[in-house]
Amino acid sequence: MAGNWPEIIPLPPSGVTGELGSWLRDLANVVNTKLARASYFSGTTPTSAVTALPGYFAINMSPSQSTDSRIFVHGGTGTTPNQSNWVVLRIA
Question: Using alpha carbons only, what angle is made at residue 81 by residues 78 and 87, rounded to the nearest 5 degrees?
Fold first, then answer.
């Protein structure tokens, strides 16, 4: 099981026009395309299950897995999505 959560902010209805409509569309575009996204998976690591960009998150939804490896962050650089470079997010 793996997937991506939907857009964070939907575009405003087409009936919202003018400066407010323009601002809301710009806001939705920035939030949905510039912020890190989260995906979910079931297993031991998101490698080979989740394709992402650096900075994106993957959350292990499997109830039987260790809570020590519940959240992963995609490392590395670049703008090409891939399935490698996942590291466990640890807070010291």
Answer: 80
Helices (H) and strands (E) counted in the chain, each on its own, are: 1, 5
Domain range enclosing 11: 2-88
Domain count, the chain: 1
Does this model's pTM top 0.85? My answer is: no
Q: What pLDDT, in 10s, does the model give residues 33-78?
A: 777 788 888 888 899 889 888 889 999 887 766 666 789 999 988 8
Spatial CB neighbours of 58, under 8 Å, sequence gap ≥ 6: 38, 39, 40, 41, 46, 49, 50, 52, 71, 72, 73, 74, 86
